[in-house]
Amino acid sequence: MAEAQDLPARRDENTVNIEAARALAQEQGDLRPRTSPQAIHALLWAIGGLVFLGWVLGIIAIVMAVRAQADIDDSNGRLKGTNLVLATYVVGVVAFALSFVWMGLAFKAASG
C-alpha cells in the first residue's frame, strides 16, 4: 500500500524533471544536429541543373556544396548533411556533363 501512495510523488518528480529538461533545452537552444540548409539548397540547384542550364547550375551547385561542407566541418556537430553534399557533387557533375552532351546533340542535329 505504501507503493501506491508513492506513485503520485514519483509522477510529480518526473514531471518536474521533464519540465526542467525542456527549460534547459530552450535556454541552451536545440542541441540536436540539424541538416545544413546550404547542403539542401545545393542539391536543389544540382537537380535543377539536370533539367535546365546544367553547365551553369551544376557549377553553382558544386560551389555551394563546397561551402556547405566547410560549414558542416566547422559546426562542431551542430550541422549534418555530408551525404547531401556528396550527392550534390555527383548530381552537379552529371548535370554539367549532360548539358554538353545535349548541346553537342543539338549542334549535330542543326548542322545536318
Q: Which geometry do the CA atoms define? A: rod-shaped
Report the order of strands and helices: HEHHEH
Order of strands, main sheet, comes to 1-2
- Find the structural class using helix and strand composition: mainly alpha
How is the main sheet built?
2 strands, parallel
Helix coverage percent: over 70%
Mean pLDDT: 84
Strand content: under 5%
User: How many helices in DSSP terms?
Assistant: 4
Total discrete domains: 2
Question: pLDDT below 50 for ≥5 consecutive residues: which ranges?
Answer: none
According to DSSP, the number of beta strands is: 2
Q: Rg to the nearest angstrom?
A: 25 Å
N-C termini distance: 95 Å
Secondary structure: elements and pairs:
Layout: H1 2-28, E1 34-35, H2 37-51, H3 54-74, E2 79-80, H4 82-111
Parallel strand pairs: 1-2
